[in-house]
Amino acid sequence: MKTSLSPGAADALLFDIGRVVIDFDLARTLKAWAVELGSDPSAMMMRLANNDTFHRYETGHVTDAEFFAAVRDVLGLRLSDDALREGWNAIFIGEMPGIGPLLARAAQHLPLYALSNTNDAHVAHFTEHYAHLLVHFRELFLSSRIGLRKPNAAAYDFVVREIGVRPDRIVFFDDLAENIEAAREHGLKAVHVRSSADVAQALDQLGLS
C-alpha cells in the first residue's frame, strides 16, 4: 500500500540511512573476510545477525571489541579487531544515486532527520566519509546512541517526541517493509524506498520543488 501525500502534508522528513541515503552491500564485508570463511559465508553471516550480541551492539550495549570477539567466535575467524573493522566498514558502497540533490532540495523546505539501525564502528565511518550528505540533517537518531532499534515501537515513539511534531505530519523513508509497516502503525506517513526515484516522487507530491 502506497502512502498518499499532498502539498503541505508534512512538517518534518525522517530518513533511514542504509540503502536510502548511503548504499551498502554485505557481500563487500564477506569478500573482505573471505579468506577465513567457509563455503557458505551467507549462512554464516545469518548466524551472526541472529546472535544476541549483534542486536545489543546496535543498541549500544556492547563495545566494538566485544562485538568483534563475538564475530570471531560465531564465524570461527582469527582476524584481528583492526582487520575485522576494516572488513565491517567495507560494506559501504557510496551515496545512493541521486540522493544528494534530493536531500539538499528537501532541506530548503523542511527539517530533515535520520533514524537508522547501526553500530559504533559504522557510525564512526559514515559520519566521516559521508559528512557532505549528513550535513542536511538536523539530527541523527542512531540506534547505538539512543538504545532503540526499528521496528520496535519505542524507537518511533522516541523520535516523534524528539522531533516534536504530530506523527501524521512526519514522512518516513525506509527500504525495509517491516520498518515501513511499523511506522504506519504508529501514525507516521511512510514511503517504501527502492531507489532515489521513490524519494523524488514523494518530494514532488509534497510540493517540495
TrEMBL record:
<dbReference type="InterPro" id="IPR023198">
    <property type="entry name" value="PGP-like_dom2"/>
</dbReference>
<dbReference type="InterPro" id="IPR006439">
    <property type="entry name" value="HAD-SF_hydro_IA"/>
</dbReference>
<protein>
    <submittedName>
        <fullName>HAD family hydrolase</fullName>
    </submittedName>
</protein>
<dbReference type="GO" id="GO:0016787">
    <property type="term" value="F:hydrolase activity"/>
</dbReference>
<dbReference type="Pfam" id="PF00702">
    <property type="entry name" value="Hydrolase"/>
</dbReference>
<dbReference type="InterPro" id="IPR036412">
    <property type="entry name" value="HAD-like_sf"/>
</dbReference>
<dbReference type="InterPro" id="IPR023214">
    <property type="entry name" value="HAD_sf"/>
</dbReference>
<keyword id="KW-0378">Hydrolase</keyword>
